[in-house]
Amino acid sequence: MNKFDLYQDITNRIIEAIENGTIPWRKPWNINNGVCALPINAVSKRPYSGVNILLLWAAEIKNGYSQSQWLSFKNIAELGGTIKKGEKATKILFWRTWEKDKTDDTGAVVLDDQGQPEKESGCTVKYFNVFNVEQCENLPQKFYENSAMQIDENLAYDAIHRISKGMNVPVLAGKSDKAFYSPGRDCIIMPAMQAFDSIDHFNAVLLHELTHSTGAKHRLNRNQKGNFGSADYAFEELVAELGSAFTSASLGVKSFLENNASYIDNWLTILKQDKKAIVQASKLAREASNYMLEFDLLEGAAEIYEQCA
Questions:
Q1: Which end of the chain is more exposed for a tag (fewer CB within 10 A), N or C?
Q2: Is 109 inside any structural domain?
Q3: Residue partners of 274: CB distance under 8 A and separation at least 6
Q4: What class of enzyme is it (predicted)?
Q5: Degrees to nearest 5, angle at CA 39 with 77 and 164
Q6: Which helix (H) or strand (E) holds 277?
Q7: Within a domain: 239
């Protein structure tokens, strides 16, 4: 499959999941206690990235897997395991970077001012097959042990404090009955904590707005100029939705299935118009999540939440 078809196929898989009522970045409450753990390679323990997270989450939800651990054919063979009869692989993307000497139209190597070959680089992408550990037999027992994250909403709340403090984004709770990021003031306005069903619900909404704040010019400098209803606005909302989902998975914040029909329609419109949109949005969302999580490593973050009557 060539690169053009690959992007379209990936997009079609995400569209199909959404149209069938499954939003890949939101898990039902009965799986892993509502927490969407980041999918990892079961051997290296390295998390997958970008759109691969969505593809693996979608497979976990569709097939009812409780594990978020995945293996390649090679991993399974080296562990002495086998694939259960009838099981099919989940296809994800594998990116390989390359560098070579730059050549002109005649095939001659182009030299720089010092007489050294100029270089050009790029990357190629192809499919890579992986299997959930629940699709495998005869693996060492440790690979079947439940990997679900233990939930502590108060610890997640503290981590989000550190992120907010590190990013220097004040969070003003109780100032409005709506949650939003104010670019002009570079702060987040939130309803009072009591307006939410739980601390986790507050955390999930706040992480969405914090993801928006990562796009400020002095941070990651994303395009946030779109007006409500525009394609740019909808794309930024998709980035914030994915970024908060990735960060929630890292911090153990539960998913909340508030499926706003207008947002879902906007996401579908974007995906149907641009086959690369989901890959690009996932990449930007992962960058935003990584940016936020670095601030969780800071210690001694002071209280910045302003609880208002």
A1: C
A2: no
A3: none
A4: transferase
A5: 150
A6: helix 277-295
A7: yes
- Any idea which of 126-135, 189-198, 250-259 has the lowest mean pLDDT? 250-259
Looking at the chain, how many residues does it have?
309
Q: Are 266 and 130 in contact (CB under 8 A)?
A: no
Enter the pTM of the model.
0.81
Helices within 29-175 (DSSP H only):
51-63, 73-78, 153-167
Q: Which domain holds residue 170?
A: 153-307
Q: How far is CA 253 from CA 61, 110, 172, 212, in A?
A: 17, 53, 21, 18
Position 205, amino acid: V
**143, 177, 212: which is the final residue of a domain?**
143
Shared-domain flag, residues 14 and 61: yes
Q: What is the mean pLDDT of residues 145-172?
A: 82
* 268-294 per-position pLDDT tens digit: 999 999 999 999 999 999 999 999 999
Residue 292, token pair as written in the block: 């936020």
> When comparing pLDDT for 93 and 152, which is higher?
93
